[in-house]
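Folding problem:
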Amino acid sequence: MKKLVACAAMLMSAGAMAYGTGQSSFPMSTGKKLISTEFTGITSDDGGVGAQVRYTQKLNNLVTFDAGLGIGGGDRSQRLFVGADYELYPDYLNQPKISVRTSILRAEEFEATKTQFAIAPTLSKGFVFWGEEAFPYVSIPLGLNLNSENNTYDSMLSLNVGINGRLPIEGYRHLNGSLELQAGIQNSFTAFVAGINFPIQ
């Protein structure tokens, strides 16, 4: 019951998400901080390429916070985001990690200012690939897009799959890498995000 109350509190708070789910599936110790540089590519709906910077911090055993900004080509020029991931169940033995991510994204898209409020149930599990542990995940972001230009809103839904893990390259094993694919289902777009994460603590 306590977990459900805490989850509801998280969903009602102003958390947020960028393009991509971020580092929430990668296990981090409390207090650990990362700076991520990410390349974004939208392949549908007047797509374009861009980049974003993300700050991630593990606040306690259950909550991971992130925030950042991004720029892009095409009709999606800039965005600011903030988010939080709340762990409901840990990755333990045969049980996958189950978490819920809340997000707010404010962006300039198609010459209009849009604000997105979203939640993303996320399932992840650690596996060993070629001697290195990695954490594939799947999430289903759903939410509302608010258009300030014409005071309208619509619902959105997408399916995101990705993987986080240490880079399997000699000399760079202290860095984490991430790759995520997003499939637009309703009022969203198809895209990919690839990033490198630098620990700062």
